[in-house]
Amino acid sequence: MGGLRNVSSVCSISEMDDFDLSRLLNKPKLNIERKRSFDERSLSELSIGLARGLDTYETTHSPGGRSGFGTPASSTRNSFEPHPMVADAWEALRRSMVYFRGQPVGTIAAYDHASEEVLNYDQVFVRDFVPSALAFLMNGEPDIVKHFLLKTLYLQGWEKRVDRFKLGEGVMPASFKVLHDPIRKTDSLVADFGESAIGRVAPVDSGFWWIILLRAYTKSTGDLSLAETPECQKGMRLILTLCLSEGFDTFPTLLCADGCSMIDRRMEGNHGELQMISIKGYKYNLKGIYGYPIEIQALFFMALRSASSLLKHDEEGKEFIERIVKRLHALSYHMRSYFWLDFQQLNDIYRYKTEEYSHTAVNKFNVIPDSIPDWVFDFMPTRGGYFIGNVSPARMDFRWFALGNCIAILSSLATHEQAMAIMDLIEARWEELVGEMPLKIAYPAIESHEWRIVTGCDPKNTRWSYHNGGSWPVLLWLLTAACIKTGRPQIARKAIDLAETRLLKDSWPEYYDGKVGRYIGKQARKYQTWSIAGYLVAKMMLEDPSHLGMISLEEDRQMKPMLKRSSSWTC
What we know:
Blueprint: E1 11-13, H1 21-25, H2 43-51, H3 84-95, E2 97-100, E3 103-107, E4 124-125, H4 126-138, H5 143-156, E5 161-162, E6 165-166, E7 175-181, E8 186-192, H6 204-221, H7 230-244, E9 276-279, E10 282-285, H8 294-310, H9 315-339, E11 340-342, H10 343-350, H11 374-379, E12 385-387, E13 390-392, E14 395-397, E15 400-401, H12 402-410, H13 416-428, H14 430-433, E16 442-443, H15 448-455, H16 476-485, H17 489-500, E17 512-513, E18 519-520, H18 529-543
Antiparallel strand pairs: 1-8, 2-3, 4-7, 5-6, 7-8, 9-10, 11-12, 13-14, 15-16, 17-18
């Protein structure tokens, strides 16, 4: 990779002489013959496994395979007629494609001509492109994914500054935009590393999604040559250097600022302190995404596991793999022990003693039982459980966050028992978490005085809207993947059927508002690309469950803690 360049607050590139991407793009794919392992099974075996209620698996790639959903390249192997929405979805997805020097490099966030304000919806976001990338991979079109991975990798190598502060070398951009100069007939890229984002926060999740997508590309195509290039190896090591660095942390989890992931607006309490208020008899513990959010921890875990399978076993690679293994063991124990909540665990916390001192303490984070919000006692079924939103000293966010819990299942951060419990919870609380449009990004919504303190009176995050209890169709692909992995495809089918009653008619909104997701979001963009792609990926995975192997990892038995559920907070 070329030397660093000072691009101050924005990175704009028009020439790439110092980093010849063409030589990477033109590398031939490797023809790889691989022995089938325990987690690499044929589609027929997987279908049998699903019928028997098989809970987890990871499948091999099927080079050149297409999903068969309403595109010109569709195969004729469909066992059923595709829904009429599918063809419209593919047409809309292709309209969103972005080209750089004649090559597709991503998809814009939204293609909404009715909106007067474009803002940054005309950019290619790393996190937003993931479902689009999976859709293209499942349809046998990997080139756009390869180009995207290389362009974002190139942008990572630039020096990033916000005002006078230099960001870490491994930071991936939140988004980028292609600028076309019709007079000079040139294309250039402009990247945003957080300096233009709301709150000026760098995207912690971009690097994790990049590694996860690199693995998905490799699994789908069987092409190891891209991941094994010196540039990709270095890119992964730079990301890992950022998140594996040693400091004052006493936990293996990653400390994050608010707004560093999909929930990219303020959702934290004042100064991160524990605050308790009472409104109409309901206790509220004011906290939020700031700290150790489940979404980042689950993505961190999945990225570490993905990187360990992609890093070469050379001198540098082995050193990082050793650090990854140590962190994974600590992280899995911490998350499965301290973030997990089920009926028994809730009852244990309710009976906690406080102000314990010494290594024999049971209440290790000094959680005050009175801080448990009233709603969680009714929300928690006798069978079921989930990873709560945030845990740190004297602070617990008991809210449900969909993305973190689905990623926990796919990455096997959740044990088999925990994964099944998460699905039990979704079934038991279908009205609350799915309602009329899948899927609630967070539950429940915060409102009244709590909303004013936590969000700073954010007019976009009012109750049951946007990130504050809104329903996001993009989450459909994550729910479907989790359902297939846990052997419950019928749940995914039910959710997809719900989405199909509205999405096309409503012009593919970004999100829905209301307690059950009945209304199009008050500021939701139409033709939101990841709503479209999320639907396509969900449909394709149900048609061919072998696609799950791109974004699913089997449980590492060595990381499974020997914990009893009733004493899971004791060491």
